[in-house]
Each structure stands twice: as structure tokens, then as C-alpha cells.
Amino acid sequence: MTHNILPTTTVDTSSQAAFVKSLDEIRMHVAEEDRERFEAAVEELMYAPFINNGKKINLDKSINDEVLDKFSMQVIKTQFAANPEIYLDVVKSYFDGKTAHEIMINADKCILSWLERETTALQKRILSNETKLNKVLAEKVREDIRMTASRMIVEQILIDQAQYSYDKSFSTAYLNFRITNNTSIPIRKIYIDGILKTPGRSIPWIKDSITCKFPGGLEPNEQRLINLETYASEWEGEADGYVFANRDDLVLTLRVSDFKGPDGERIVAQGGDSDLVQTTSDLERHIAEDRKRIEGLTEQISEIRHRIPS
């Protein structure tokens, strides 16, 4: 590319007036195809001491946003306008004695330096998140094994002879059943999933959960007949004036989904499997976003390196 720039035209930073005048003189000789790049280079170098550091700090999260706000472009421009001589002293090393071509190259080097720092920081963050992800996945495997083992224990609790009745006058439902604890763990409380339906009908009359406590516990190999009363509206035997509880074709199916042992802890629902799933999803998303960002940075780095003379 041909540059219509006088080789002796350089920036003078001896004073604010000289700085502005020398830049204007250089602009007069910058080729049309280079003007946009030149103006962008001047903008970059004018704020390079602050912007580069600010973006690096922001990425590494080593300084809070309130402090980082001091490095915002608007604040920097305001400070520059109010204290041009002081500000010029900070940035003069980027401009003093430089030609237009050297300014554009220096700006490219500044941008390249920041892009490389950001790429390195992203790579470190990806590595950190991958380490976290591996730990979460290992924990999830352990939790899955625990959940499977816990459900196998719960399945050893047998409920049979289940019957449903409803007293409309007291709005009370009765769930009668026999429960046998075939586990080796004394039971303090059980969580039951219940379905009341008529065989052949697609939609059940009632599908809900209920709990049952055992004062004194239900010991291993112990069997007990339960007459469970509930006033919960979910178990009402009527709907819109139709008392379906009077039907003689109702079948009540009860299944234990969880229980509390003597320590008061639930056997199945102890872990945070849903939290692990969410954490896994978040980490995978962050890693993918950072890798995508690195792809874009790599393209920019390649383009800028191509412009910088070797």
C-alpha cells in the first residue's frame, strides 16, 4: 500500500498546542485509504494507558466495577479536556517523534498486546472452568449412584391393600393401606405418590402426593395397617358436584417415593442433583462462550500481525 506521507512529518509533544498542530499537519498528508486507520490509531494511543489496563482488569476481575468505572472512556475524555497538559505527559511516549505510519503500527501493537492478554486470560478461565466442570461431573456421577441405591432401598417398602373412601359431610378422604418395611432402616415418615383411577379411563380421578408419619417409627420387617385421614382438597371425592367417590370401580395405587430415617433426613432427596445439573449447564455454556470469543480474537490477532512489519 502506498502512503502519501511526508517522511519528516512527526508528532511534536512539547506542548498541547504543538501536539494538536503537528497531528493536523500529519492528517493533511495521510492518504485517503489510510485516514480511517490513522484516526483509529490516534484514538487508540490517546487512551491506551487506561483502556488496555482497564479491559485487562475487567477480564481478570481483580478490581471491582466501581474502581474500574474511573477508567471509562467518557471519564478519560473529560479528564483529558480539563487537564490536557497533564494528560499529554502520560501519553506522549506513544506519539513523540512518531510519523503517521509509526503511529498506526504502534496502535496495532497496543491492540495486539491487549488481544493477546485477553486471549491468555480467557484460556486460563476456560482451564479453570474445565477443572470445575470435571469435579461437578464426578460429583454428579456419585450423586447418580447414590440416588439409584436410595431408590432401590425405597422400593423395598411395600404398600398393598390400598382402599379409598370419602366422607362428603366432613370433606374428609380416607386412605387405608398396609405397609411393610422390608428395609434395614427404621422409618420416621414416608412420602407417597397416589393415583385414584378407574381401569380403562385415561385420566385419573386423583393424582397427588401425601405424607404419613409413624410415631415410634416403623421398624425393619414391621408391618402396619394405616387409616390415613386427609382434608386436603386434592383428595376430595367430588368435582363440580359429581361425587365420584361413590363409584365401585375405583382403584387406589400408592407408591413410596421417599422416606425419612431415624436421623430425620430424607433417603432420596438428600442431594442437590438439580443444582449439579444447573451448574454443569452453566459451566459448559461459559466454556463454549469463551472458546467462541477466542476464535474471534484469533482472527483479529492474525489480521493485525499481518499489518505489522516483521
How would you portray this structure in words?
The strands form two sheets. A three-stranded antiparallel sheet has the order 1-2-5, with no helix packed on it. It has a three-stranded antiparallel sheet with strand order 4-3-6, with no helix packed on it. The protein has 310 residues and is α+β, with helices and mostly antiparallel strands. The two termini are 16 Å apart. Strand 3 and strand 4 (206-218) form a beta hairpin. It has helices spanning 16-29, 32-60, 65-68, 73-82, 84-95, 100-154, 273-307, and strands spanning 157-167, 172-181, 187-197, 206-218, 223-230, 251-260. It has two domains: 16-126, no CATH class; 155-260, Immunoglobulin-like (Sandwich). The longest helix has 55 residues, at 100-154.
Structure class: alpha+beta
Helix-strand sequence: HHHHHHEEEEEEH
What summary fits the major beta sheet? 3 strands, antiparallel
Whole-number mean pLDDT: 85
The tally of beta strands, per DSSP, is 6
Per DSSP, the total helix count is 7
Shape: rod-shaped
- What integer value in Å does the Rg equal? 37 Å
Taking pLDDT < 50 over at least 5 consecutive residues as the criterion, the unreliable ranges are 53-71
